[in-house]
Structures are given as structure tokens and as C-alpha cells.
Amino acid sequence: MSTLVWPRQLLMPARTTINPVPFTRSGGRSLGGIEPATRTDRGYWSIGLEKVELHTRQQRQVWSAIRTALSGRSGLIAIPIWSFSTAPFASGSYEPVTLTTHGDGATFGDGSQYRQGAIAVRMADAVAIGATSVRLEIVHADANLVGVRFSHDHALYETGPATLVDGDTWTVPITPAARAAIPAGADLEFDEPTCLCRLAEDNGMDASLNNVRYDTPSVAFVEAVDYWSDLAAGLI
Predict the structure, then answer these.
(1) 3-class DSSP state for residue 39?
(2) Is 46 helix (H, G, I), strand (E, B) or coil?
């Protein structure tokens, strides 16, 4: 998928809120007054970037360019998910993504280097759309994949308590349900996961760009669940 990506280093928020919004189905209250709730496969991510620093001209220009590209809620953007505090780094503490060459020193055609993440986890089995449990195989990571976040093609997931651990393979529930099929052996993004989103409001990127020297606007996004629905239906 080729899409606009929020520049995590240039437009850094002071605080992020990244929360799943579950959707449960009520069965009606029982005679004892208890209202049972059943989980459905629906739900979405709600993401807030609070107090994004707009100080330099470059920061202001990029903010304005993203706002123009999105054109309100109609545009799509992949939002970075800052999850360093829960990411399964093998060392137990934060390890940055590095840039490297192949063993023979080769780079991309334009001379740029290859991105090398510190965490390597892949999908042990093929995953179908709508799946709520997956098997993850650790290649290089901390031996604990409970309560961590990862993405695949900008679809964001969070794991729950393990239901089975077999050596380096962990069977865990995920939320939300799988947005798209994931092939067996697919490399998953644990270092810098992303979530495909739309602005929560058409005017969500309003900011004071003209009359102040320093501004810290906040912006809210919601997961673009309509995109995944259309993709599954073969409409895009």
C-alpha cells in the first residue's frame, strides 16, 4: 500500500493517546438486572496527537501540506504508533531502527540504505480477514508477546493474553479483528507500527500559523475502517 505517512520525527506530539474503541452487542438485561455484553468483530482505533510542535518553517509547511492533502476526513494517512514502552525489544529497553547496506555493501538504486528494525517477528500461519487469534513466531525479540502492538500494511493490532506458547511461537488474541489477509511468514512491524486513519473532524488540523511564532495544536484521528471494508469487498 502506498499512502501518506505522518512524519514521526518532524511533527512530534508531546503526548499520544492510542486506544481501541470496542463495539459490544447487548443481549438485554436479565431478571437480576445484569446486562450481558458480547464482543463483536467490529471496533476501531482512536488516536490523538496532542501538542504537536510547530516552531520551524519546515514544520509549519509540512503541517499545511498534510492538511491540504487530506482535505478533511476524505483523505487517508498512516499514523505512527509510539509504543516503545511496550515493544518487545530483545534487550529489554528501547533500541532504535538503524539504516544499513546489504552484506556486499549494496544499497537501493538511489543510494539510500535499507531500514533494519530491532524487532523481528513474523506471522507463523496465514491469517484470514476477520481472524481474532494469530500465531506469532519470534525471530529476534523479547520472549513475551503479550500486550504488544504491531502492524501489517498499516493495519494496527494489539495482542491479548497468550493462549498457547510453543517454543518461539505464541498464539494470542488480537484486537481488532484482522483487517486484511496476512500471508504465512509475513514480517510484522513491531518497531514503528502504523495505523491507517482519517481525520476525526473535517477541521481537525486547524492551527494558528500566521500570528504566533510557536504553536502546539492537537489533532485527532480515527481508523479508516471503511477502507478495510471496501478492500475486503473488492471495491478498491
Answers:
(1) strand
(2) strand
- Residue 203, SS3 per DSSP: coil
Q: pLDDT tens for residues 61-98?
A: 999 999 999 999 999 999 999 999 999 999 999 998 88
What one-character-per-residue DSSP string does 155-178 give? EEEEE-S-SEEETTEEEEEEES--
Element at 45 (helix H, strand E): strand 37-52
Cβ partners under 8 Å of residue 41, min gap 6: 130, 132, 176, 177
d(CA 193, CA 199): 18
d(CA 136, CA 103): 27
Task: Check pLDDT > 50 for residue 22.
Answer: yes
Give the Cα-Cα-Cα angle 193, 6, 86 (nearest 5 degrees): 30
How far apart (Å, rounded) are the C-alpha atoms in residues 130 and 39?
13
DSSP sequence for 2-22: ---B--TTTS-EEEEEEEEEE
DSSP 57: H
Closest CA to 224 of 39, 78, 41: 78
Q: What digits encode the pLDDT tens for the residues 38-51? A: 444 568 999 999 99
Helix (H) or strand (E) segment spanning residue 190: none
Q: Compute the distance between CA of residue 113 and CA of residue 103 in angstroms, rounded to an integer.
A: 12
For a pLDDT cut of 90, what percent of the chain falls above it? Answer: 75
Phi, psi dihedrals of residue 175, rounded to the nearest 5°: -135, 140
Please tell me whether residue 65 adopts helix, strand or coil conformation: helix
Q: What pLDDT shows up at residue 38?
A: 43
